Amino acid sequence: MGRSSTEPSTTGRCAEVAISDDVLVIGGGLAGAMAALAAAERDVRVRLVTYKQSTLRQASGLIDVLGYAPDGDGPLVDPFEALEGLPTGHPYERVGSEAVREALAFFDEVAGDAYVGDHTDANALVPTHGGTVKPTARYPTATAAGLASDNRDALLVGFETLPDFDGPLAASHLAAAGVPFDARGVTLSFPGIERDDAKVTRYAHLLERDEAVSVDDSAATVGARDALAESVDEHLEGEPRVGFPAILGDERADEVRTALGEGLGVDVFEVPMGPPSLPGMRLSDLLYDALEDAGVRVTSGVPVVDYEVDPRGSSDTPADPSAAKTSDDPARGRIDHVVVDRNGAEVPHRADQYVLATGGLVGKGVRSDREGVREPIFDCHVPHPEDRYDWFVDGVFGDQPYARFGLDVDRELRPLETDSRPTFSNLRAAGAVLGGYDFAAEKSGSGVSLATGYVAGRRASTAVIR
Amino acid sequence: MATDTEVLVLGGGSTGCGIARDLAMRGLEVTLVERGNLTDGTTGRMHGLLHSGGRYAVSDQASATECIEENEILRDIAGHCVEETGGLFVQLPDDSDDYFREKLEGCRDCNIPARVLSGREAREIEPYLTPDIERAIEVPDGAVDPFRLCVANAVDAEAHGARIETHAEVIDLLRDGADVYGVDVRHDSGPGKRRHAAPGSTEEITAEYVVNATGAWAGQIAAMADLEVAVRPSKGVMTIMNVRQVDTVINRCRPKGDADIVVPHETTAILGTTDEEVSDPDDYPEAQWEVDQVIDTLADLVPILEEARTIRSFWGVRPLYEPPGTATQDPTDITRDFFLLDHAERDGVSGLSSIVGGKFTTYRAMAEEISDHVCGKLGVDATCATAEEPLPGSENLAVLEDGMDEFGLRSPVARRSKQRLGSRASDVLETDDANPVLCACEGVTRAEVRDAIQQSGTDLNAVRIRTRASMGNCQGGFCSQLLATELHPEYDEATARSALDELFQERWKGQRHALWGEQLSQAMVTYALHATTMNRDRDPAASDGSLEYGAFDDGEVR
Q1: CB–CB of B316/B274 below 8 Å?
Q2: Any one cellular component term from GO for this entry (chain B) (predicted)?
Q3: Where in chain B is the domain with CATH 3.50.50.60?
Q4: Which helix (H) or strand (E) holds B136?
Q5: Which is it for strands B310-321 and B231-241: parallel, antiparallel or unpaired?
Q6: What pLDDT score was predicted for residue A314?
Q7: Which of A390, A396, A448 best probes binding to B when mutated, by most B CB atoms within 10 angstroms?
Q8: Is some CB atom of chain B closer than 8 A to the CB atom of A1?
């Protein structure tokens, strides 16, 4: 995101260099942002450190809660009903279904007008760029007119230089999926796009800035929005809605969509796309604006490379010399500080509570080599079969063990050791770094990140106050 | 359905396609049938080494001499399939001086250009070689694309009137008394180009002469006519790295051994290989230890391989053969020479020969010898022209190099497209249509994919072997859907979808042996894209039941 905040004065032993906060969130994806926002609801100092660009750029921007039960049942009409039946250890089971609802309500508040779907518990079926439909709980306003349960006919517009979305093929695919309307597709050339390999952001910016483009080789130019509307208009056969790949503007996407809709006299919607995904980037921008508004200090581009435990032991656990070690005693005590690499300088970052939201295999919060699978910052335990040939099954869409790799946590979302004791007293984990669920098969990735991020952030800030 | 031909070639690997081209160029009427895609057997599962002969310069000088001769011919007739990388035989401290000297002398005996480099000189050429290298012998090894070479042979055979049928499995070898007269084949989707979901059919093809060029499968084919061919299939693993750690073929200079070669191949490097006899060429274990062994052993030569990213592993089965009674124990000791088994001489059954053994580099010479044999049998007097006539794509390489910057393709895409297409580049790439890159890892454009679809129908694995699309780092994660899209609207949506499913599963198969580190993360990216974003794993279009759309959110706030 490129934003950085002024470093506050610090306290503690390393007063000159150390950074000190109440809650430190590691990871800047959906789970990390939610954790920081939820923690900042209380009067605590929250910092979020993030290393790489978040995987939100790769995500469709839809907020799935649960599209399919772990046994494959679905698409589920009501995801909340199914939450009750999830197996022990599933992240939703850890936090409870009420927390999932609270987290969604919190997200709805943060997202404001940018997302819809909160008027019903029922999932929506959204057309995908591959041409079928998928169940989701919240969707960008830009996608709202495209829902598959809406029985109005649709024209799907693809572009010859944008091979990820093929209008005619998507329309046939939707028909095969049995949608209750007629879909028709066309492939057009995009006015103003001169290179066959232009990036999606180029399309978005052409429309956003309404750049002057020439049409039909004439010297006269028109605005990119009018030019696009005009070229679509001649293909319209009375369809009341028109779908485009999700490239209709960047920061001012609403304006672009409205202009196209008015020009065509129809409702315009976007079909979510694969990476790089503009809806994902817009969601990321929305979250970082909210973090700024909430006073969260964000430091980008810095990896956490090490940590130190508090030599005095765990102060979160009541000191009772008569009590024997219980199953709740943290195995490795309490984290005193983590070490952040800032352009080669190792800077300690101290906090009272920590949230680990570094992502799964995709975000590199879970790593592997030929010998095994690990969590790289704290070396938390990641359960996995010893033989790496047991990490997968032969059917590409089979029940893949690797898709469930991640941390086991207790109901406080603290990572657990092999003996089921929490690893640290003041570390909670959220999002894809958690194990025990296959977000891709369940269509539950965003929902788990929201719910566990929200709960981890809330619990962390409560622990600070206590 | 029944048809007749002069010569029927069984097997669409390098040998079969080489024979089909040779005979068709001599004016014979040829039909070739292949069970799967061209190269599906052993040809498409080799390490891509164009032997200089150096490898056999001590143990088998006849093969070594033949290798260097054919190596030079292929550089001429198939320049667009060959990369002249050069090769090094590297001596480490444990490797014997005597053997090094024998290797050098052997190369000279066989007319293989060879020169000794000091350890420092070798590391100047290949900086990632281990610092404890003693010295090396430089030879003209190369990298060859077996897919393009095999397809070019088939295309040229067709241009000379041959009929090439893929996805046509031999289900019976027809024998009448002491004469073999043809086969029954089962067409996966009817004759001609493959078309998904088209109904299958069977065909009787009769011929004056049948050539069994099915390699490791030759025993199974012969058995259909109650003949015995004791092939000893031997498997070897090859592991593909994500980048070229080396630009030169690296061999270990020692008598023999598993896992002693690294071949730079297009954007990747291929590590190989192991040698272990198997009983069934279609069903053998693909074991983790083999992958670990090639990486660990080759890391002695090139240490960064230990930590480098592998993108997939695959196994090939060598069609080894030795005459009855030889009974060599260790498959690494079985000769790499080829054998032409004339069943008339051997078993008193006319009309059939089987070809077994041999190696890819000398496929053309084998094809020539077999074609001579067939012509002899049929009383045809025609000479072989395959050593002189360039293969399609290689006719005008010099002209091609001069005019590199057309087609609106940005380098390095332009460079790579031209390397793949050779002199066919202008035919394929000159298009008024938009021509975006579909496979970013390998730089393959839409025009090239469409050209391949014209050749091969709906089989995207056939498109893959022609273009290399989906063979890079992401292993089809990002491009497989785009390739399938190109099938529409010529083919319908259901066909495009099933072609996509097939390619996607095939790409997964090889990645399973590289699933750790970056490639496991890549697999998760791919899974997330296809399952989460596209819902391809639970596509309502693929399920039997109908979905009750009315029960879901339709966007109306009530």
Answers
A1: no
A2: plasma membrane
A3: 2-42+147-230+336-378
A4: strand B135-139
A5: antiparallel
A6: 56
A7: A396
A8: no
Contact criterion met (CB < 8 Å) for B434 and A178: no
Query: A52-56 long-range CB contacts below 8 Å, 24 or more apart?
Result: A52/A363, A52/A364, A54/A28, A54/A29, A54/A30, A54/A284, A54/A363, A55/A29, A55/A359, A55/A362, A55/A363, A55/A432, A56/A29, A56/A30, A56/A280, A56/A281, A56/A283, A56/A284, A56/A287
Question: Does A60 contact chain B (CB < 8 Å)?
Answer: yes
Rounded to whole angstroms, how far apart are CA atoms A461 and B295? 48
Q: Contact B546/A116, CB-based, under 8 Å?
A: no
pLDDT digits (tens, 9 = 90+) for B23-32: 999 999 999 9
- Is the CB of A274 less than 8 angstroms away from the CB of B478? yes
Torsion angles phi and psi, residue A362, rounded to 5:
-70, -45
What digits encode the pLDDT tens for the residues B121-137? 999 999 999 999 999 99
Low-confidence stretches of chain B (pLDDT beneath 70): 190, 196-197, 257, 396-416, 558
Q: Sort out which chain B residues have CB atoms less than 8 A from A129's CB and list them.
A: 533-534
Q: Which of B515, B532, B556 to mutate to test the interface with A (most CBs of A within 10 A)?
A: B532
Question: How far apart, in whole angstroms, are the C-alpha atoms of residue B460 and residue B453?
Answer: 8
- Say if A291 is an interface residue toward chain B (CB within 8 Å): no
Question: What are the extents of the domains in chain A?
Answer: 19-107+281-465, 129-271
Residue A122: list chain B partners with CB under 8 A: 551-553
- Class (C level, CATH) for B83-142+235-314: alpha beta
Q: Do B529 and A119 touch (CB under 8 A)?
A: no
pLDDT in tens, B449-501: 999 999 889 999 999 988 989 988 889 999 999 999 999 999 999 999 999 99
Which residues belong to CATH 3.30.9.10 in chain B?
A: 83-142+235-314
Q: What is the DSSP string of B229-298?
A: --EEEEEEEEEEESS-S-SSEEEE-SS--SS-EEEEETTEEEEE---EE-S-TTS----HHHHHHHHHHH
Residue A323: what pLDDT?
Answer: 45
Is B2-42+147-230+336-378 in CATH node 3.90.226.10? no
CATH number of A19-107+281-465: 3.50.50.60
**pLDDT surpasses 90 at A303:** yes
Interface predicted TM-score of the whole assembly (ipTM), two decimals = 0.93
Residues B136-157 as b or e (16 or more Cβ within 10 Å = b): bbbbbbbbbbbbbbbbbbbbbb
What is the tens place of the pLDDT at every residue in A368-410?
998 999 999 999 999 999 999 999 999 999 999 999 999 999 9
Chain B contact for A177 (CB, 8 A cutoff): yes
